[in-house]
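Example record

The entry below shows one chain as it appears in the dataset: sequence first, then C-alpha coordinates.
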Amino acid sequence: MPQRPLVILPDSRLRLTSDPVVRVDAKVRSLVEDMFETMYEAPGIGLAAIQVGVPERVITIDVSREGEDKKPLLLINPEVVAESDERSVYQEGCLSIPEYYEDVERPARVTVRYMDIDGETREIEADGLLATCVQHEIDHLNGVLFIDHISKLKRDRVVKKFTKLARERERDER
Protein backbone atom coordinates (compact mmCIF):
# COMPACT_ATOMS: atom_id res chain seq x y z
CA MET A 1 0.00 0.00 0.00
CA PRO A 2 1.86 3.09 -1.13
CA GLN A 3 1.46 6.35 0.67
CA ARG A 4 0.31 9.12 -1.67
CA PRO A 5 1.54 12.73 -1.59
CA LEU A 6 -0.85 15.21 -0.01
CA VAL A 7 -2.28 18.13 -1.96
CA ILE A 8 -1.46 21.30 0.01
CA LEU A 9 -3.08 24.75 -0.02
CA PRO A 10 -3.05 26.83 -2.30
CA ASP A 11 -3.33 23.95 -4.83
CA SER A 12 -6.47 24.68 -6.88
CA ARG A 13 -7.47 20.99 -6.88
CA LEU A 14 -8.67 21.47 -3.30
CA ARG A 15 -11.49 23.63 -4.73
CA LEU A 16 -12.75 20.97 -7.16
CA THR A 17 -16.10 19.27 -6.70
CA SER A 18 -15.40 15.54 -6.65
CA ASP A 19 -17.22 13.10 -8.94
CA PRO A 20 -19.43 10.31 -7.59
CA VAL A 21 -18.04 6.79 -7.61
CA VAL A 22 -20.12 4.80 -10.11
CA ARG A 23 -18.97 1.38 -8.96
CA VAL A 24 -16.56 0.02 -6.40
CA ASP A 25 -13.87 -1.76 -8.41
CA ALA A 26 -10.21 -2.70 -7.95
CA LYS A 27 -9.13 0.89 -8.70
CA VAL A 28 -11.35 2.28 -5.93
CA ARG A 29 -10.25 -0.43 -3.50
CA SER A 30 -6.60 0.41 -4.22
CA LEU A 31 -7.33 4.12 -3.68
CA VAL A 32 -8.99 3.33 -0.34
CA GLU A 33 -5.98 1.28 0.85
CA ASP A 34 -3.61 4.08 -0.16
CA MET A 35 -5.80 6.68 1.55
CA PHE A 36 -5.83 4.79 4.86
CA GLU A 37 -2.05 4.34 4.65
CA THR A 38 -1.58 8.05 3.89
CA MET A 39 -4.00 9.17 6.61
CA TYR A 40 -2.42 7.01 9.33
CA GLU A 41 1.13 7.96 8.31
CA ALA A 42 0.41 11.72 8.24
CA PRO A 43 -1.03 11.27 10.99
CA GLY A 44 -4.63 12.41 10.60
CA ILE A 45 -8.16 11.36 11.51
CA GLY A 46 -9.76 11.94 8.11
CA LEU A 47 -8.84 12.18 4.45
CA ALA A 48 -10.78 12.95 1.29
CA ALA A 49 -9.61 11.50 -2.04
CA ILE A 50 -9.10 15.00 -3.46
CA GLN A 51 -6.43 15.53 -0.80
CA VAL A 52 -4.34 12.91 -2.63
CA GLY A 53 -5.24 14.37 -6.01
CA VAL A 54 -8.16 12.08 -6.90
CA PRO A 55 -11.43 13.99 -7.50
CA GLU A 56 -13.74 11.14 -6.43
CA ARG A 57 -16.26 11.11 -3.58
CA VAL A 58 -14.32 8.86 -1.20
CA ILE A 59 -13.36 9.60 2.41
CA THR A 60 -11.50 7.64 5.06
CA ILE A 61 -11.86 8.35 8.77
CA ASP A 62 -10.57 6.97 12.05
CA VAL A 63 -11.25 9.03 15.18
CA SER A 64 -9.91 6.40 17.61
CA ARG A 65 -7.45 7.75 20.13
CA GLU A 66 -3.81 6.74 20.38
CA GLY A 67 -3.54 3.42 22.19
CA GLU A 68 -7.07 2.34 21.20
CA ASP A 69 -7.84 -0.22 18.52
CA LYS A 70 -8.17 1.41 15.12
CA LYS A 71 -11.74 2.01 13.95
CA PRO A 72 -11.39 2.68 10.22
CA LEU A 73 -14.47 4.06 8.50
CA LEU A 74 -14.85 4.32 4.73
CA LEU A 75 -17.57 6.46 3.16
CA ILE A 76 -18.10 6.39 -0.61
CA ASN A 77 -20.45 9.02 -2.09
CA PRO A 78 -21.37 10.29 1.40
CA GLU A 79 -24.18 12.77 1.81
CA VAL A 80 -25.63 14.37 4.92
CA VAL A 81 -29.33 13.47 5.00
CA ALA A 82 -30.13 15.01 8.39
CA GLU A 83 -28.45 17.37 10.82
CA SER A 84 -29.28 18.62 14.30
CA ASP A 85 -30.22 22.18 15.10
CA GLU A 86 -27.82 21.93 18.03
CA ARG A 87 -24.33 23.18 17.17
CA SER A 88 -20.89 22.27 18.49
CA VAL A 89 -17.47 23.83 18.15
CA TYR A 90 -14.28 21.86 17.63
CA GLN A 91 -10.79 23.02 16.89
CA GLU A 92 -10.17 21.74 13.36
CA GLY A 93 -7.02 21.20 11.40
CA CYS A 94 -6.38 19.74 7.98
CA LEU A 95 -3.65 17.65 6.39
CA SER A 96 -3.86 19.98 3.37
CA ILE A 97 -3.32 23.05 5.58
CA PRO A 98 -0.55 21.75 7.86
CA GLU A 99 -0.11 23.08 11.37
CA TYR A 100 -3.02 25.51 11.23
CA TYR A 101 -5.99 25.11 13.59
CA GLU A 102 -9.15 27.12 14.22
CA ASP A 103 -12.44 26.67 16.06
CA VAL A 104 -15.25 25.79 13.65
CA GLU A 105 -18.95 25.57 14.47
CA ARG A 106 -20.99 22.82 12.81
CA PRO A 107 -24.14 20.79 13.50
CA ALA A 108 -23.54 18.62 16.59
CA ARG A 109 -25.12 15.51 15.03
CA VAL A 110 -25.54 14.31 11.47
CA THR A 111 -26.98 11.33 9.64
CA VAL A 112 -24.97 10.36 6.59
CA ARG A 113 -25.92 8.02 3.77
CA TYR A 114 -23.00 6.40 1.95
CA MET A 115 -21.80 3.36 0.06
CA ASP A 116 -19.45 0.85 1.69
CA ILE A 117 -16.55 -1.07 0.10
CA ASP A 118 -19.03 -3.71 -1.17
CA GLY A 119 -21.16 -1.07 -2.90
CA GLU A 120 -23.97 -1.42 -0.33
CA THR A 121 -25.87 1.68 0.77
CA ARG A 122 -25.59 2.36 4.50
CA GLU A 123 -26.39 5.11 6.99
CA ILE A 124 -24.50 6.25 10.03
CA GLU A 125 -25.51 8.63 12.80
CA ALA A 126 -22.57 10.60 14.10
CA ASP A 127 -22.03 13.03 16.94
CA GLY A 128 -19.06 14.58 18.69
CA LEU A 129 -15.70 14.43 16.95
CA LEU A 130 -16.97 11.90 14.38
CA ALA A 131 -19.74 14.29 13.27
CA THR A 132 -17.22 17.11 12.89
CA CYS A 133 -14.77 14.93 10.98
CA VAL A 134 -17.44 13.55 8.61
CA GLN A 135 -18.68 17.07 7.82
CA HIS A 136 -15.12 18.35 7.34
CA GLU A 137 -14.31 15.56 4.87
CA ILE A 138 -17.61 15.87 2.97
CA ASP A 139 -16.83 19.58 2.63
CA HIS A 140 -13.60 18.58 0.85
CA LEU A 141 -15.63 16.61 -1.70
CA ASN A 142 -17.50 19.83 -2.48
CA GLY A 143 -14.40 22.01 -2.79
CA VAL A 144 -14.93 23.58 0.65
CA LEU A 145 -12.13 23.92 3.21
CA PHE A 146 -12.52 24.36 6.96
CA ILE A 147 -11.05 27.84 6.62
CA ASP A 148 -14.19 28.77 4.67
CA HIS A 149 -16.03 28.54 8.00
CA ILE A 150 -13.87 31.18 9.71
CA SER A 151 -13.67 34.95 9.27
CA LYS A 152 -12.55 36.34 5.91
CA LEU A 153 -9.64 38.13 7.58
CA LYS A 154 -8.25 34.91 9.11
CA ARG A 155 -8.91 32.97 5.90
CA ASP A 156 -7.10 35.56 3.76
CA ARG A 157 -4.09 35.47 6.11
CA VAL A 158 -3.87 31.67 5.91
CA VAL A 159 -4.17 31.60 2.11
CA LYS A 160 -1.52 34.33 1.80
CA LYS A 161 0.84 32.42 4.11
CA PHE A 162 0.46 29.14 2.22
CA THR A 163 0.76 30.85 -1.17
CA LYS A 164 4.04 32.40 -0.02
CA LEU A 165 5.29 29.03 1.27
CA ALA A 166 4.40 27.38 -2.06
CA ARG A 167 6.35 30.03 -3.98
CA GLU A 168 9.35 29.51 -1.70
CA ARG A 169 9.18 25.72 -2.22
CA GLU A 170 9.05 26.21 -6.00
CA ARG A 171 12.02 28.55 -5.87
CA ASP A 172 14.00 26.08 -3.73
CA GLU A 173 13.23 23.20 -6.10
CA ARG A 174 14.69 25.04 -9.10
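Notes for this example: The first strand starts at residue 46 and ends at 48. Residues 21 and 32 are 12 Å apart (CA to CA).
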